[in-house]
Please model this.
Amino acid sequence: MAALEVRGLRKQFGGVVALNGIDLDIDTDRVVGIVGPNGSGKTTLFNVVTGVHPATGGTVFWQGQDITNIGAHRIARKRLVRTFQQAMSFPGLTVDENVRIAWEQGRRGGGRWASPGLILDFVGLAPLGKAIAGSLPFGSLRRLGLAVALGVSPELLLLDEPGAGLNDSEAQAFAAVIAQLPPQGIGVCLIDHDMDMMSELCDRLIVLDFGTKIAEGPPAEVLADPKVREVYLGPDKNAAVS
Amino acid sequence: MPMTDNSAGKIGAAPEGARARDRLALLTADNAAVPLPASVQAITAILLAALLIALPWLGLGYRFLSIAITTLYTAIGLYGLGLQFGQAGIMSVGHAALMGVGAYASAILSVQLDLGFWTSLPFAMALSAIVGGVIGLPTLRVGGQHYIIITFCFCALFVIVLTNGGTFTGSATGLDVGSVTPLPGINFDKLSNNYYLVLAALFLALAATHLIGISRYGRTLRAIRENEQLARSVGINVDLHKLGVLMVSGLFAGLAGVLQLYYLRHISPTLFGAFPSLYLALMVMLGGARYLYGPLIGAVIVNFLPEVLNLDPVDSRIAYGVCLLLVILLLPGGVGAGIKNIYCAIAGGSVTQGGGANGRA
Ligand SMILES: Nc1ncnc2c1ncn2[C@@H]1O[C@H](COP(=O)(O)OP(=O)(O)OP(=O)(O)O)[C@@H](O)[C@H]1O
Ligand SMILES: [Mg+2]
Model:
């Protein structure tokens, strides 16, 4: 049995069907990637799984428990934690305090970090501890988003385009940090558009299109799938993968 | 500060303008999140405490001491408002009504059941807390701006209920109480003793505010103020904490209301209506809700300004309006922020500037 099991998940915004019956099984010992064109429902999937939006239908099981619609804070306390596509922080507070807030929440029932400083060290933000989060350069803000999520001591971390807006070297450094998580017992489910990075990082890829899972498997296999190629390349198969 | 990025491009821009802008940036900087060294905090606290304790001995006169008492109990109410607004980001413009709930609860307990100051105090504080929480229920569904309107309506409604409450609330004339039940050897009819009673309560309020500010609870409230969605995603029960802080704020308001009641010995509905409520909001913004001494500074300015400048009530309203505009334009964090920014500048480089020095991507 997988740690996270999603069954027939549906989400409708008025007339828009953002998720149309998704089934997923995600374990906590690896990096799973979720890809798909813009508007295919990737972020919505995270939002519904983590209780930000209520599900229209279907069920989410986490470690065998039904967590559908139990509320975002309760899901986070069960150590299923996510980051946001828009880089988020507590902008008026220091970097230290940002991480400490999350760490104090994660410490209930035993967290994995002895102090918030260790998290800053891990993501490479230690020298900026006294800076105000809102004044951070974008790359550091992305790291802070990760640090805050790690502070909750997640068992599975859902990362929504953590590399978006970073330059190549920043994105590579970020990927290196992400790759260190599963060996430490933190499973990762990653959304990103960078196919090269995804192929390298992920053990498994899931492809969404119009709120439906159209492919799943090892990256090389999935990217060779004609259905996936059609979604990404359109009927004209000569363009490059974006 | 990001501001420096803009000016960096325009080489040769008037240095005068740049310097003025730097000076303005110094004032408007937000250093609320910057911790002060413990020694500075301790010295400030000791000096302030000494000054407040010595006040009745400085021979400033009866009138001065009366205004000081008013200032201090108002400040206690403001510490509640400072907590909900400064820490949790929930503003209220009906806070005087919450003080009124405490004052009237205590007065009614005195008139109907003959309960004195000390016995009625816990009930009055509890009732203010409960009412604060109940008015807060809509915040869970609507945004902050709507909550402000709701507090204003509550305030208006409260006055209407009091005015039409017959002998139970004393209607428009209000209610009278006796003096504070004496403690062994301390008679609170003496003005300076009443002052010390209110001062003791202020110290409690200050201590509570300080402890909340440095605690995990305070951080949780600031997390909610800064980013509700992120707060939820790290496991904070945002709804519960919003109601909780409004109830804690109600406790402060109840305490302030009862002290007000037993200082004035007579209360009437107009004390707790829209105008006093707006003044409370003004004071907390003037002083700086996020700073430990901000509410006290705000209360001192608003209560002593007409006295110092010899203003009649109409003039003083105009003066308050001008003050508020100046603060919003020049010191968005309040006078407390200005003082702290000047300290940070003197102590060498605020953290905000340190962060900016690393540049932006
Ligand atoms: N809060 C919302 N209200 C209404 N519609 C929404 C909302 N969130 C998402 N949608 C719609 O749901 C669909 C899926 O959006 P979603 O953000 O999940 O896509 P995505 O795969 O994350 O796209 P991207 O790659 O651009 O981030 C889109 O049609 C979007 O317009
Ligand atoms: Mg998205």
User: Anything to note?
Assistant: Residues A 42-43, 85 surround magnesium ion (ligand 2) (CB under 6 Å). DSSP finds 17 helices and two strands in chain B. The first strand of chain B starts at residue 175 and ends at 176. Chain B touches chain A through 33 residues (CB under 8 Å).
